[in-house]
Every structure is written in C-alpha cells, then in structure tokens.
Amino acid sequence: MRLDKFDLNLLVVLDALLEERNVTRAAERLHIGQSAASAALGRLRDYFGDSLMVQVGRRMELTPLARSLAQPVRDALLSARTAIAIRPEYEPAAFKRVFSIAASDYMLDVMLATAVRSLASTAPGIRLNIRRTPYDVMEAFERGTIDLLIMPEQYASRLQHPQAEILRDEHVCMMCAEAARGIETLTLEEYFERGHVAIRLGDDGTLAFEEWFLPRYGRQRRVECTVDQFSVAPLLVTGTERIVTMHRRMAEEMNRRFAVKLFPAPFAMEQLCEVMVWPRYLDEDPAHRWLRSAILSAGELTASFQD
C-alpha cells in the first residue's frame, strides 16, 4: 500500500533498522533475507534523500534525520496495530484482548488483585499478563511491550505519555514482634541504630531512598539486606532486630498474617503516589479505556475499605 507515494510496508523495515542499527539483525528480526533488507534500506535512502545509517568504525550510526524519525515511525506502527485489533463490538463481555501490565507486587496485593477478580466476571475475554516492573522499564514501555504501567509518580514523570493517579499511601515501619517487645514508639535514633531491609525497585530504587535521608538528617540507614519484592518483607525481619520501611496498606495486611509489629515512621515523608501510565497510541482504544476505568474503580474501592 502506498500513501503519498511512500510504500507503507517500508515502515516496518525502517523501524527495525532504526532500532537494530544493523541490516543483518533487522533482517533476522523481520524474518526476511539480508538482501531484501538491504534493498529496502536503499529505497528508504532514495525516498528520504538521506543515508539514514552510516558506518562509523565497526558500527552503524543513525543520521540526525534517522534519529528524528525513530519515535514517529514507532508511534505510527503501534497505532496501526491498535486500529487493526479494535473490533466494532465494545461490550465488555465481548472483549477478547490480551493486555500486558507491569506493576510491583505491592500494587498487585493492594489493588490489582481486586480488579482482576472483577474482570473475571465482567470481561471474561480479557487476559492479563501481569509482570513485575522490569529494570529496563522505559525502553520496554517505549517499544510497546507494556500496555499499562503502574509505578510511583516520581518515576512516571519521566514518561511523556498519558497517566492518571490511582492511589496514595503513607510509610510505616515493620519489625519482628519479639524484637519490638516493650517498644511503644519508634524514635528516629532507634530507627538509625538498627539494621534495615530495603526494598529495591529498579536499578536506582534503594539509592534514591537513601539519598532522601542524607541531606535531612546527615546520616544514612544501615542497609543489611535488599530485596526487589515487598511481599517477602515480613520473612526478612522475623527473628531479627531489623526494620523494613514500607507502605501502610500492604503492611497492615501483613500484620494480620505474620508475627510483626508496625510503627508510624519517625520522620515526615511525602505520601507515595502511584499512577498508571499508558502509551499515547492506546489513549482512545475502547477496550484499553475500559480496562483503565476498571482499575481506577478498584483503586477507589480499595481506598474506601482502608478509610
């Protein structure tokens, strides 16, 4: 198909070439011969009047024009895929779609599980692939492998895509109930004297939390263990003198199941604000819009139970 004298089939090849920066790898990704990929690159160079990729030493580098084309080309292809997937029937019970959601186990525990249970009856044709937030979340999101991303607002602000707040939570401290025997109020001095279990989400999650303390108190916590899941926190403080600082909603649920004790955090910290982010090209997709609404409703229901 041609649009303004441009063969739209070349967009798929262009996207692969711009990302791989290698004709052989682009051909393998598209399951076509290297000669076909080279011929497509030649046609693209003729159309744009630009080399697009040039040899620099042993690697290929994109020209300034090629770099400027990368995001618009990807957005165009993702929008096209969405348009093809949309069906004229928009009743939730008739939806048949697969959505990929990236979120922490904290969000799954306090809110997403409620939405999943609701969808089982209202939209049985929707399948959700829920995964933990990957370390390369920005790249994965931009590549279109994640349909919905749920993460703290301070990280989501880096993404120039639509987003909406879904819940807020405050910080509390959790200790082994035996180790906390006799402690009525956790002081800041006691907090710093004990070892800590730190929740590390992403490559810089723990570092960001530690840097919060240093300029305010002139000292850092003594982190003795790090983990990338909230759900195992009680297991890592039980039988120790350690403290884990986490979010109230999940901590209160754990307090009902484990021999732990909760204390208000002995410092003032802004509430956690969790937001959901979705790709621009899915903003008007009816099925995705309905999914977002269902998740927002689950967040409101969760908040009403907590209040």
Oligomer: single chain
Main sheet properties: 5 strands, mixed
The CATH top-level class label of the largest domain: Alpha Beta
CATH homologous superfamily of the largest domain - what is it? Answer: Periplasmic binding protein-like II
| Cα-atom radius of gyration | 24 Å
Structural class: alpha/beta
Main β-sheet, spatial strand arrangement: 6-5-7-14-8
Low confidence ranges: 203-207
Q: Which CATH-level-2 architecture of the largest domain?
A: 3-Layer(aba) Sandwich
Hey, roughly how much beta strand do the residues contain? 15-25%
What is the fold-level CATH name, i.e. the topology of the largest domain?
Answer: D-Maltodextrin-Binding Protein, domain 2
InterPro entries: LysR-type_TF, LysR_HTH_N, LysR_subst-bd, WH-like_DNA-bd_sf, WH_DNA-bd_sf
Organism: Pannonibacter phragmitetus
Pfam family, one: HTH_1
Family: Belongs to the LysR transcriptional regulatory family.
Q: How does this structure look, described?
A:
Helices cover 45% and strands 22% of the residues. The model is unreliable at 203-207 (pLDDT under 50). It has 307 residues and is α/β, with parallel strands linked by helices. The chain has three domains: 2-85, Arc Repressor Mutant, subunit A (Orthogonal Bundle); 93-168 and 276-305, D-Maltodextrin-Binding Protein, domain 2, CATH 3.40.190.10; 171-264, 3-Layer(aba) Sandwich (D-Maltodextrin-Binding Protein, domain 2), CATH 3.40.190. Strands 6-5-7-14-8 form a five-stranded mixed β-sheet. The protein has a five-stranded mixed β-sheet with strand order 11-10-12-9-13. Strands 1-2 form a two-stranded antiparallel sheet. The radius of gyration is 24 Å and the shape is elongated. Strand 1 (2-3) and strand 2 form a beta hairpin. Belongs to the LysR transcriptional regulatory family. Keywords: DNA-binding, Nodulation, Repressor, Transcription, Transcription regulation. Pfam families: HTH_1, LysR_substrate.
